[in-house]
Design a protein that fits this description.
about 375 residues; alpha/beta; seven-stranded mixed sheet; six-stranded mixed sheet; 11 helices; about 25% strand; globular
Length: about 375
């Protein structure tokens, strides 16, 4: 399996880092420091370089150090033995700029999939507790990193959906309702929506197998969980849904049915995970989701994604943690970045498992190799 290695990370006015440069020499890298010191910000910088956006702040300007107008993140990668120089430049009031090997991208979407990455954080609990939109984003982010046609269909569908919704709102405010005006956008939603549906069905069949395998390893076969794909398109075509809901859409001023309403249902022992799982079981479920995501991406890409584990010990006992670390070792994963509040805790477990690693001590926006 091919690997991606991040060899150097350089930050300039990014979050709480005025200036920092970190040179990595190991497959497993640990960032240790107090809460608020900047450990997670380093993971987010790596996430930016891989998928063109922050995992935590959707507004780019919020990631620029307070009191400054611009920021940059630079990564020196090695991918399958070849160097990749990636730069992300942020400036208030302007669009972000991405460059690969000193050449600017025309479209950010062209970068997605070049450096696949998976991040696991305590915020992942939103996948269980929040609405269906969060789970769809997880689904879309996963498939987009392994399929360029899917990403292109998703962008086109979302554009058509926005235009159709704007038109419905315009009918309500200005009058002059004419269903013929909806037709061009309906045709695009039907075309791209059908592509997305078929790709999601195909992907989730594979994903469910990967997920179940990982979860059974973490829980040592003691619990039964399941992921169910729910979609309006199981019973009706996209064209039928748009036709059936035209009056409703006109009243609501938005497109009320379609692929953008898909859902993933999570269960444990046949019951809703949200209501019947303990904190440890929920955490294990989330790890299994992300490791299955990791496996699916690397299967399709033929390369190990970068893996980022933020606050690995949050709400999980040491027994399950050891199973997770053992899974990482046994599955020959690529480069891993781990954060923890204790300098010795994770390194001690890694040493016990004979996993070579390095430790960086993080304090108030500074990083020192231990």
């Amino acid at each position: 399996m091919k690997n991606i290695l991040l060899e150097r990370l350089t930050l300039y006015n990014f979050k709480n880092y005025t200036e920092a440069s970190l040179h990595f020499q190991n497959k497993v890298v640990c960032f240790a420091g107090d809460n608020g010191s900047g450990k997670t910000n380093l993971l987010d910088a790596i996430h930016y370089l891989c998928v063109c956006k922050s995992f935590f702040n959707t507004t780019d300007s919020q990631n620029i150090t307070t009191g400054h107008e611009q920021a940059s993140i630079t990564g020196e990668f090695e991918k399958d033995g070849m160097p990749e120089h990636i730069v992300c430049a942020l400036r208030k009031g302007q669009r972000k700029v991405f460059k690969r090997n000193f050449k600017e991208y025309d479209k950010l979407a062209d970068h997605i999939g070049l450096l696949p990455a998976v991040i696991i954080t305590p915020y992942d609990i939103e996948l269980i507790w929040e609405g269906s939109e969060v789970r769809r984003k997880f689904l879309d982010a996963t498939i987009s990193q392994q399929s360029r046609p899917y990403l292109e269909a998703l962008v086109a569908y979302n554009h058509a959906l926005l235009q159709r919704n704007n038109l419905l709102k315009s009918f309500a405010t200005k009058g002059g309702y004419n269903p013929d005006f909806l037709e061009p956008w309906d045709m695009q939603l039907i075309h791209y929506g059908t592509i997305l549906y078929e790709e999601r069905k195909k992907f989730l069949k594979e994903f469910a197998v990967q997920f179940n395998s990982v979860y059974q390893t973490i829980c040592e076969g003691k619990e039964q969980t399941a992921i169910t794909y729910e979609s309006d398109l199981h019973e009706n075509s996209m064209e039928e849904l748009l036709q059936q809901n035209r009056d409703k859409d006109r009243l609501l001023e938005r497109t009320s049915a379609g692929i953008h309403k898909d859902e993933l249902a999570f269960t444990i022992g046949g019951m809703p995970l949200k209501k019947f799982a303990s904190q440890g079981q929920q955490k294990s479920f989330l790890f299994a989701l992300k490791f299955a995501q990791y496996n699916c991406i690397r299967t399709h890409q033929g390369i190990n994604p970068l893996l980022m584990l933020d606050d690995l010990l949050d709400k999980i006992d040491e027994g399950r943690l050891m199973q997770i670390l053992r899974w990482l070792k046994d599955n020959d994963t690529g480069q891993i970045f781990i954060t923890d509040t204790h300098t010795e805790r994770i390194p001690a477990l890694l040493t016990k498992l004979e996993m070579p690693h390095e430790v960086w001590k993080i304090a108030a926006g500074t990083a020192v190799h231990a």
